[in-house]
Amino acid sequence: MTAAVTPDKLGMGDTVEVMMARAREAKSNVPVGGNVVVELFGPDGVLKDLRVGDNLVTDHGDEAVGERMYDDTQDIVTGMRLGDNGSPTTTKAGAGSFIQGYITGSQEALDAVPLGVDKGTGLGWRVPHICTWAAGDVTNAAISNTVLTDETPITDVTGTAANTVAKFVFGSTIDKQAGDSLVVTWNVDFLGA
Predict the structure, then answer these.
(1) Out of 113, 122, 161, 168, which residue is the most buried by the measure of CB atoms under 10 Å away?
(2) Among 164, 155, 147, CA closest to 64
(3) Contact 48, 41 (CB under 8 A)
C-alpha cells in the first residue's frame, strides 16, 4: 500500500511506502478422530451385538490433546462410563458432551495402558483405549452411550464436560444381561496433514 504524505511547511514531500505483510504459514491440520467398536459377548463367548461408529471429540478432548503436546502432566484418558438415556444428544460442549443417564457403577478403568500404533506411512497414529465390563458387571437392558474420561481417579459419578474427552452414542440400545460381557474399543486417530 502506498500513501502520499502531504508536504510539510518546508514544502518538502515524501512518499511513504507502507508495507503490510503477513508471514506465510504452512497449512497444517492435525485432526483427531477415530472410531468406536462396541462388542457384546454372550456367556458362551459368542458375539451377540456389534456396533461401530465415529466418536465425537469434545471441546475438553481438543484441549487435552493440545495441552498434552507441551505439558506432559496433562491428565490422560483413565477410563469410560456408560449411560442409558433413551435419546442421548451429542455436542462438543455443554450437557450433550458428557454421559447422559449415567448407569451407577459403570465407571471402568482402562484394561491396560494404551500403546500407540503406527497406521502406516502417511496414515497417522492410532491410540486404542479398551474397557471390558465382564459378566455380572453392569447389567442393563438399555445402554445407549459411552464416554472417555480423564477423571483421576475415575469415580462412580456422572462426570462433567470438564473431564469428558470424547463421546459415542449407539444407534439403538444394547441389552447387557448378567452373563454377558461388553468390550468397548475406542480408537483415537491422529493424522497431521
Answers:
(1) 168
(2) 164
(3) yes
